[in-house]
Amino acid sequence: MPFRRLLVIASVLGSCLHGSSAARAEVRAVWVSRWEFKSEADIREMMAWLAEQGFNVVLFQVRGQGTVYYRSAIEPPAETLAGTSGWDPLAVALQEAQARGLQLHAWINVFPGWRGETPHPDPRQLWNFHRDWFLMSVDGSRDFRAAEYAFLTPTLPSARSYLVSLLRELWTSYPVDGIHFDYIRYPGPGYGYDPESLLLFRGTTGLEPEEDLLAWDDFRREAITQFLREIRQALDAEGKQLRLSAAVIGDWRMGRSVFLQDSHQWMSESLLDAIFPMTYTPDTTRFAREIREHQLDAHATRVYPGILVERNPNWPQEIAIARRLGTGGFCLFSYGGLRKAAEKDSLFLLTLRRLLRTPQPSPTPWPTQPRGTSDRWGPVIAHVRRSPPHVPSDRRWEVECSIRDPSGVLLRSVPPRSPYLIWTVGSPLEGGKVELMLPTPVGSDTYRTLHSLDPVPAGSAVYYRIFAADRTHSDPTLCNWNYSLLERAWAVPSNSSWRATGKLGPALWGARSCAVDGRGNVWVVESIRNQLRVFTPEGRELLFSPLDVSRLLGAPAEPNAALAAVIAHDDTVYVAVRANGGRLVAVSAYSGGVLFRVQLDRPPGDVELLDRGNFVAASPDGSCWWIFDRTGLLRKPPVCTSHLTQGIAVLPGGEAILATCRSEDVLHVWRRLDPNSPLYEEIPTDLPFQDIRIGDVETGPDGHIFLCLAGAGLVLELNSDFQVIDALSQNLRAPLTLGLSPDGRRAYVIEAPGLGPEFIRIFERQ
């Protein structure tokens, strides 16, 4: 079967389950946060305005931080309701929405349980009576200031049971049209290390987290998925028809690896009726790419893009893109921003009305799908994994997964086969190979490819998906079918010369940039604490570390001053600072003392040394890059492109500038026009690399290129011809950047930390 047919079949399966988008009324939703109403009059005016503009679904926030905006016997009312006459915001919102034909979905922050320095006065509040339920970070603290909220621990059955009871009270007491989940994730991979969760993980796997970080991630992801199963089971047990949806990370691969949010598995199991990806970017290329990725795994779940209106001049184009992609709807963030913009700019209001009133909105968008308890969704395919973990270029490999269904899984070796895997190399639209999967051992839920699969050329992308049918009908063509996520992996040599050998120093809060000086000491930007940390190769912190922003600037730092990047050249370390435009600060690697400071005419993002004292820097928003000298003087006008530059690297001698691109998820190359010229031109390439996401690119002392595929848990080592020659992969989840020792034999890998602490991983060349 051609792989093109595979993608078409997957799309058709999803549309058959919930109807084509053309046959449904368009969902025109809006988020209304708890900060956007203070009185009954506010809500009445809000609902009237939203109906007038053409919205038809309101996601109305009723839980923010372990307090609620409705009458509850379980959680105390929100602090903003204290001292009022005891009015009920949700009841008022329901009455006003229903009077105007608006659907109202109760928006809840799921795992946040508190926020702020002062505990709530009510002893029932979670932070007061169950602090043991809150996430503990890898450094043993319950410090939640970096994550904004203190989160409940999803792996604790008691915490999940509490939330199920809270939601049951909500849907029993109020006739809401749906429940909308937000913050249904971890704040980062460095959380969840409380004693009970560690005990549960040991009991399940017999391992410590550091022995298998990927299994530890799976354990925590599965806990959130299990919470949604428990919600769905509670609804089905009561025969309750209620729309469930969730706001999810726009880049689903980063959501899965960094925030442990398995949104595509939720869609595979039909646990939600819709997801609202938070595709909050003015970059329309990235916006469309992220939405398409969600649609490829949508199953029976609708994908309604979340569109940020404030600071996004392209929001009208993004609505047009959503319509062109056939999403059947969208959601704007948020009501308060819309009102402010509409009051300031009549053209904005006119544009909004034209977009929302054409075609005429229907009062009944998003019809309820009958669920019941019948077996109609097909087998659940989960825990897809490879052996070895990364596709090898020099040996055969296998795929296994779990497949479950109440009526049993159809086993059939002749067409229509079940279950089977289809895979291809290079493009998901090219022809593919089919391989049967069998239970191993017989009778278990674990299935493995019948034969091992062929090796794949190094650096190639491998795409695969698994299909399976259940036993609900004697005719296999009438059984319920389902399919797994569309997996993409990258082929690398199986015998890597790089080995993970440990961690450097303590867990760091928001490590973002890393450099190694001529003595082998490691300099790291710790962004959450806005300071520079310096460690010996053995992990001991130097006496002059940490260096904060004020010390580097030589004066008290302005509130929004931030460290952007660090680079090292022999015994001098250069620190890029976003303050008063921008600064480049040169620091002695011996003493940490400031050697000189350079004023830049614009704030820097990533920075690299180019040649002969010249530097290249990207802007913080990635829209431009430019070259400047040691005095801060521009050597050439900024290069502004449609790309969103994430990371910058330079080939030896400044021969070429490399830039990772968040827009297209590729690597761009600019070649120098002349050895003595600061002018570069972009050269067309057909480099296959994707899954870079938020990853950086660096060059080693031998000129080799190290490309961080944050979306694939992999760092590729390339030669100067961009051929893959090796990879760093052991126990990596989302490599962000790395620093290399002067001899190139040791690599310090920084993983994407989310909003919390994470260790720097050490790899050594054997």
Indicate the CATH architecture of the largest domain. Answer: Alpha-Beta Barrel
Identify the CATH class of the largest domain.
Alpha Beta
The fraction of residues assigned to DSSP E strands is 25-35%
Binned, the helix content reads: 10-25%
Question: How would you describe this structure to a colleague?
Answer:
Mean pLDDT is 91; it is low at 1-23. It is globular, with a radius of gyration of 27 Å. Helix 2 runs parallel beside helix 3. The strands form nine sheets. A nine-stranded parallel β-sheet has the order 9-8-7-6-3-2-1-11-10. Strands 12, 13, 14, 15, 16, 17, 18 and 19 form an eight-stranded antiparallel β-sheet that branches. A four-stranded antiparallel β-sheet has the order 20-43-42-41, with no helix packed on it. The longest helix is centred in the first third of the chain and has 26 residues, at 213-238. With 766 residues, the protein is an alpha+beta fold. It folds into three domains: 26-113 and 153-189 and 212-357, Glycosidases (TIM Barrel), CATH 3.20.20.80; 380-490, Sandwich (Immunoglobulin-like), CATH 2.60.40.10; 498-765, Neuraminidase (6 Propeller). Helix content is 21%, strand content 31%.
